[in-house]
């Protein structure tokens, strides 16, 4: 863990040196690369895991090349004064992800799978209740249907409800008048005759469709 910590510190200083070069702060870049080299050298010296050594060596070689190149450029080209290593800004840890507030439910079509979860005994009792209720409802509905049939038969024996509209032959019952008016609104006798005359043609067409 400590060796990895040194490795990450060296990489942090290395990338900070690259950024300093991009910002044309060549003296600061030399200091950053130098600190990266120190961390990289410590990581190599303190590593006791053989499998981890190649990664540390590769990191060390990359940083050494950058240190040499940065020093050479500054000594021969830029001649910037090197800032004090103790006074340069410390690179602090940065969050790599931003936390977002969590709302519930997360999606509009969310369905809680445990909302309808009940004990097996309760589930069996509910099924038994529904079955018993359906049985009672069917019995009552059959009784109502039987009573309706008996009532209709009794009314038919009394010639009801037709007898209510019986005017003794002196007047036309209102229901008949209403039905006559409805026929008139739909075309009257002409429409009826037309429909009647079209029956043979429709019959022939129906036979053709059935034969086909």
TrEMBL record:
Residues 1-151 form the BRO1 domain. One of its GO terms (cellular component) is endosome. PROSITE patterns: BRO1. GO terms for biological process: mitotic cytokinesis. It comes from the Eukaryota. Pfam families: ALIX_LYPXL_bnd, BRO1. This is BRO1 domain-containing protein.
């Amino acid at each position: 863990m400590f060796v990895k910590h040194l490795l990450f510190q060296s990489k942090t200083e290395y990338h900070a040196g690259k950024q300093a070069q991009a910002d044309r702060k060549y003296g600061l870049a030399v200091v950053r690369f130098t600190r990266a080299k120190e961390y990289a050298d410590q990581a190599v010296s303190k590593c006791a895991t053989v499998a981890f050594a190649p990664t540390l060596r590769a990191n060390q070689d990359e940083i050494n090349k950058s240190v040499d190149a940065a020093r050479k450029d500054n000594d021969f080209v830029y001649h910037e004064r090197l800032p004090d290593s103790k006074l340069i800004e410390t690179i602090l840890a940065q969050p790599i992800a931003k936390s977002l507030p969590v709302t519930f439910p997360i999606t509009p079509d969310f369905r809680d799978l445990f909302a309808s979860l009940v004990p097996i005994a309760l589930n069996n009792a509910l099924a038994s209740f529904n079955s018993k209720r359906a049985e009672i409802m069917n019995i009552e509905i059959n009784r109502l249907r039987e009573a309706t049939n008996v009532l209709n038969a009794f009314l038919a024996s009394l010639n009801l409800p037709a007898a209510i509209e019986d005017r003794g032959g002196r007047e036309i019952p209102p229901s008949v008048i209403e039905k006559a008016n409805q026929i008139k609104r739909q075309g009257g006798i002409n429409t009826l005759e037309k429909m009647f005359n079209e029956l043979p043609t429709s019959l022939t067409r129906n036979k053709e469709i059935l034969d086909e």
